[in-house]
Amino acid sequence: MEQGANSALKDQDLTTGIHESVNQTPSVGEKTQGTGTSMFSKDGAVGSLFNADGPVGGTAQAIGGPFDKGGAIGQHFNADGKIGGAVQENLANKK
């Protein structure tokens, strides 16, 4: 067998290397501390889109009529409405 660069190494396989880091970060999506705002909260990353001044809520405000924040449909999407309230109760306040 030809002697290559690895023939002089006396380490056993998998005893050293990059996969044995002590300071590993948590996996993506794992909740680490429980602090901060839920993404579904009215102030979170998703919930804030539906506020009257957010992109989705702002579009509804521009259309107006029943989609306005006080309209027949729009009133259900605020944090106290049927849809927004259900999101606040079931998704935003989970710990």
What does this structure look like?
- The chain has 95 residues and is mainly α.
- Helix content is 21%, strand content 0%.
- It has two helices and no strands.
- It has helices at residues 55-63, 82-92.
- The N and C termini lie far apart (60 Å).
- The mean pLDDT is 75.
Helix content: 10-25%
Uncertain spans = none
Count the helices. How many?
2
Give the integer mean of the pLDDT values: 75
What order do the helices and strands follow? Answer: HH
Total strand count, please? 0
User: End-to-end distance, in Å?
Assistant: 60 Å
Rg: 26 Å
Strand content: under 5%
> How is the main sheet built?
none
Shape by Cα distribution: elongated
Class by SSE composition: mainly alpha
Notable features of this structure?
single chain; elongated
Q: Summary?
A:
By secondary structure, this protein is an all-alpha fold. 21% of the residues lie in helices and 0% in strands.
